[in-house]
Amino acid sequence: MMTILTASLAMTSFTGSGLAAEHGEAGMMIPKQEQQEMVNIAHRGASGHAPENTMGAFQKGFEMKADYIEIDVQMTKDGELVVIHDTTVDRTTNGTGKVGDLTLEEIRQLDAGSWFSEAFTGESVPTFEEVLAEFHGKVGILVELKAPELYTGVEEKVADALIDRNMNTPNNNKIIIQSFNHESMKKSKELLPNLSHGVLIGGSWADVTEEQLAQFATYADYFNPTMKIVTDELVSNVHEAGMDIYPYTSRSSEQALRLFDLNVDGIITDYPEHIYTHPVKNS
User: Pseudo-torsion of CA 186, 188, 189, 190, nearest 10°?
Assistant: First the structure.
């Protein structure tokens, strides 16, 4: 089964025979012939609807039929892998301190949900193992190694966790590993040569050259930039280098539609509903 995803400016109606025409706030339509294959990645889970990087957000992303959930992995003081975005717990929990200065037990005692809504009070910071156990086989997992330079050996820890679950097999396109730290991705690729890897790209790479893209392509399968620098030319050059492009982070239907029109391969979004799914059979 492949998925065709369409970004829209408004809610989409489904019919028994396919995807109905979509009408935006200004009457814009996306004709059916303009639909394209697209990958829908729930950023930190469906983080527009639930507290980021919690099991609640990942479950919501799965329920909303995202193709992947994106997660951020860091390491505790006692060497355990946890899923949290910031290098401190201050913003998304009721605690304070650096992730790397706290033990797993200390982090597990924190409330990672009530900052978002009282409905999520008691949500905890999940471990990497918990996310793999719950969601592997149900939805793809885009694993970001967050600030790996702070955590000696984190690439090996992640590799071991995946190998222990036989998730390092060839052509396993349901696990992708990415990072802003490109040296870390080279290392991870050596440890997990059969898994796809991606380089995350900030605004400073707006003028990336074809030569630089070719170098990335020696170890990366994905070039995932901030959506602010995505142009037709960049998408074309990334494809020419043999990589796919998943820009981040779409937070409105207008942003999703712009990326859709630029012919990207996937969209990393807080709101999976901005990219609607219509399953069709492989030909």
Answer: 90
Instruction: For residues 186 and 190, give the distance between their C-alpha atoms in angstroms, rounded to a whole number.
Output: 6
- Residue 12 has which token pair? 């989409």
105: which residues sit within 8 A by CB, 6+ positions away? none
Phi, psi of 29 (to 5 degrees): -120, 145
Bridge partner residues of 248 (DSSP)? 226
For residue 212, CA distances in Å to 199, 216, 243 come to 12, 6, 12
Name the nearest CA neighbour of 168 among 148, 141, 134. 141
From residue 268, give the alpha-carbon distance in Å to each of 145, 185, 274: 16, 19, 11
Note the pLDDT tens digit of each residue in 238-266. 999 999 999 999 999 999 999 999 999 99
How long, in residues, is the chain? Answer: 283
**C-alpha to C-alpha distance for 238 and 232, rounded to whole angstroms:** 10
Residues annotated as catalytic (active site), given as ranges: 43, 85
DSSP letter at 164 equals H
pTM beyond cutoff 0.85: yes
Task: Tell me which long-range contacts 257-262 makes (C-beta under 8 A, separation of at least 24).
Answer: 257/7, 257/8, 257/9, 257/24, 257/30, 258/227, 259/7, 259/227, 259/230, 260/6, 260/7, 260/30, 260/36, 260/38, 262/230, 262/231, 262/232, 262/235
Mean pLDDT of 62-90: 98
CA distance 269 to 40: 8
